[in-house]
Write a structure and sequence with these properties.
Belongs to the purine permeases (TC 2.A.7.14) family. One of its GO terms (molecular function) is purine nucleobase transmembrane transporter activity. By secondary structure, this protein is mainly alpha-helical. It has 15 helices and no strands.
Length: 381
């Protein structure tokens, strides 16, 4: 018995040593959770970015193909940019909502009147700059059009400064300067002898101005959407993102349909289908896939807004800058002039300048997040 009693402290000590690993495992678990969340965040960024790049490039090329093969309805070309929203409705029934429960309990949800006003404003705004994009795409070579669209990054930086408290750094200022010069150079590139569409100087100027205005409108819409997430919606869930896309697209579609019937263009649609160079089926498929790809782009863009910022969403959109002009050379035989090449290189330089600033911000935030994680681990241990 005595030996048994003497051995009991050793047994207890041995049991204590055996019990210690779960505590270490608990600490290790708390250390790995932030890493898993970080990996999950980067995976989401890659998915959203791929949606933006693929959707934007495909939709732009299909839109140019629509006009290039004989179609002329601006309202129809604008309608397909927003009318594809019904394909997103099923996501409302399968989207996760657990991550928004805590926030919804702590904050009062906005009233129906406020939500209707917000979606109506965003929808009307979406319809307006979508029409401007259509005019630009009809009157400009697709390569020139895509390069001008890079100016939306500069506009977004300016709007984000006033609406989203975005700070200006030397790299961001350099990015804005380069993108401005890049777009300005294209004013002097109206040598369309090798481009897919031949337009007069007057239409070229109209297309240029409409594309600039559309880029500014799109950038402003992104900043307003980010502001709405922070000030009005106050939740960053997948379901809220779907609501924003669907309801603003619904309003925009209704506005564009009114324009289609008011303008009288609907009377020419039957003849347009018959005269389409690729045939009736290709006409319909062009409209259907244009609508789908624009919704793919919308999901990626809005996802990047609430995961990072509207400016970052626009940066990823600008990343697709070299894709469309290069593809246009092979698909539409657009001429890649020296001015366009310089404009594209400047735009890519401007994009890289902003990305480097984002990299510096990420490095600066890591020590702070590491300290917070260490404190939380110590408190839980």
């Amino acid at each position: 018995m005595g030996k048994a009693q003497e051995q009991s402290p050793l047994i207890e000590g041995h049991e204590a040593k055996e019990a210690s690993p779960p505590e270490n495992a608990n600490v290790t678990h708390h250390l790995t959770v932030p890493k898993l969340r970080q990996y999950n965040w980067w995976i989401q960024m890659v998915i959203f970015s791929l949606l933006v790049l693929s959707g934007q490039s495909a939709a732009t090329l299909l839109g140019r193909l629509y006009f290039d093969k004989g179609a002329k309805s601006k309202w129809m070309a604008t309608l397909v940019q927003t009318a594809g929203f019904p394909i997103l409705i099923p996501f409302l029934f399968v989207s996760p909502t657990k991550d928004g429960i805590a926030q919804s309990n702590q904050t009062k949800p906005p009233s129906t009147l406020i939500l209707v006003s917000l979606y109506t404003f965003l929808g009307v705004f979406l319809a307006a700059y979508s029409m401007l994009y259509t005019i630009g795409l009809e009157y400009l070579p697709v390569s020139t059009y895509s390069l001008i669209c890079a100016s939306q990054l500069g506009f977004n930086a300016i709007f984000s400064y006033f609406l989203n408290a975005q700070k200006f750094t030397p790299f961001i200022v350099n990015s804005l300067f380069l993108l401005t010069i890049s777009s300005t150079l294209l004013v002097f590139s109206n040598d369309d002898s090798g481009d897919s569409n031949k337009t007069s100087k007057g239409k070229y100027v109209i297309g240029f101005m409409c594309t600039i205005a559309a880029s500014a409108g799109y950038a402003l819409n992104l900043s307003i959407t980010q502001l709405a997430f922070r000030k009005i919606l106050k939740k960053e869930t997948f379901r809220v993102v779907m609501n924003v896309i669907i309801y603003q697209s619904l309003v925009a579609t209704c506005v564009i349909l009114v324009g289609l019937f008011t303008s009288g263009e609907w009377r020419n649609l039957r003849r347009e289908v018959k005269e389409y160079e690729l045939g009736n089926v290709s006409y319909v498929m062009n409209l259907v896939w244009t609508a789908v790809t624009w919704q793919v782009f919308s999901i990626g863009a809005i996802g990047l807004i609430f995961k990072v910022s509207s400016l970052f969403s626009n940066v990823i959109s600008t990343l697709g800058l070299p894709i469309v002009p290069v593809l246009a050379v092979f698909i539409f035989q657009d001429k890649m002039t020296g001015v366009k090449v310089v404009a594209m290189l400047l735009a890519i330089w401007g994009f890289a300048s902003y990305i480097y600033q984002h990299y510096l911000d990420d490095l600066e935030s890591k020590p702070e997040s590491r300290i917070v994680n260490d404190i939380s681990v110590v408190e839980r241990a």
